[in-house]
Amino acid sequence: MDPNYPQGMPSRPRRGGKSLIWLLAMLASLRAFAALVQVPPFMAPSLGLVFTAVFIAIPIIGLFFAADSEWPALRSLGCLILGVLLQAACTVAMPSLSGVPLITGSILAQTGLLLWCFGLGALVAGLVKDKNLLLPIAIFLAGFDVFLVTFPSGPVQQVLQHQPAVLEKVAYSVPKPIEVGQAVGVPVASYVGPADFIFLSMFFVALFKFGMRPHRTLPWMVSSLIAYMGAVLFGPSSLSALPALLPIGLVILLVNVREFQLKRDEWIGTIIVGLIAFGLAVFPSHVLFALTPLQGSFIRRHPHADVGDEVVGDPVQRDLAADAVAVWDAVADLAAEFQQPPDSARPWVYWFWMNGNITREGIT
Hints:
mainly alpha, four-stranded antiparallel sheet, two-stranded parallel ribbon, 13 helices, 6 strands
């Protein structure tokens, strides 16, 4: 039973998939507005703040309402397959589209993304048989996400550095207003990785499944992720990307902490998982934050965003960052020079003339 619903009252009707469909339709309408309507330049910054809040809040609320229902494996799998097919079909077709068809394809692809993320999250939630497992899951995901975001050789950073177009095709996009004089289209302010919606859906389904505190969790989740996105969009360049599973896990834990009743062996296992997560998060993030600004992740500022390139921190940190950037650039230059060696690295011959016995004809 949901502890937020008063005892003795008639059973509260469950919202489920119908609410998700309505909210997805609302989100699609807002995306069409964002892609087609031009605004005066003086309105763009304030309207950008509104867009950020709306396009983060609506999918979170939609996933929450969808979770308020029974999600057996077959139903979850159907949602997953439908979303994958919709996003894949639109993504394949979009390069050949322009104008309104391109905008429509983008809207449908984003709708498919949220559908398959929820379906997969519901499937994962079905595998969780004990609510106490949510505690180590949330802790581990938070630490592991920080590791993936900050570790330069990890898959996230590799994709962001070498194939950023892949992220743009599969990630959720937060649009920005079109100013008067700009062409209509699908302008993007930032991206949200699909893994965050997957695990957000998993947690919501599990909270309803185990009768925990979903309704108290929702407002904290929405406000924290909106603030997180604001830090990405309007913060310094070192915050151009942030691991969103960190605030997601913290909200789940802090709001539902009284729901967990662990036995001694469960506490031991959770502490071990916490130490592993702490090691994953602190060691690479501490080293890399001292060396280089963060790049790419769950919530990521669009690469063309208007931000500065400064490195914040104390003087030692700035010096280390400058040295690390120089080393990184040198490694990149070295790789390029292997492809196109400079004259100084090419084979050469030393011609030693004895007693001036040489003529112009002999040289040529």
